[in-house]
Request: fold
Amino acid sequence: MKSKEKHVALGDLEKYILMAIINNHNNSYGVEIKREIMEKINKDISVGALYTTLERLETKSFVESRAGEATEERGGRAKKYYRVTAKGQNTLNQSLNEIALMYNLNPIAF
Reply:
């Protein structure tokens, strides 16, 4: 018997952020994620919404972060880089497949 995992629904912004990180080879920081979303779908999300959502995705174990090198141009602060975890990728795939099925499309293979 197959064990049933609790289904986790992703909001639109969560999906966009996960896809933006993946599009940047799983090595993105906030400004790159924001830019990717703006360039691809013309949505200008606030910095606050971006980082709140990244924190939520990290709490759910859908993304992991690491600190980069501190830079002078950032006042000695390090950039925080994000990558999508296997759990995040699987949840995103499930969400995208549900959308495809609702549109009577073939499930998407990732």
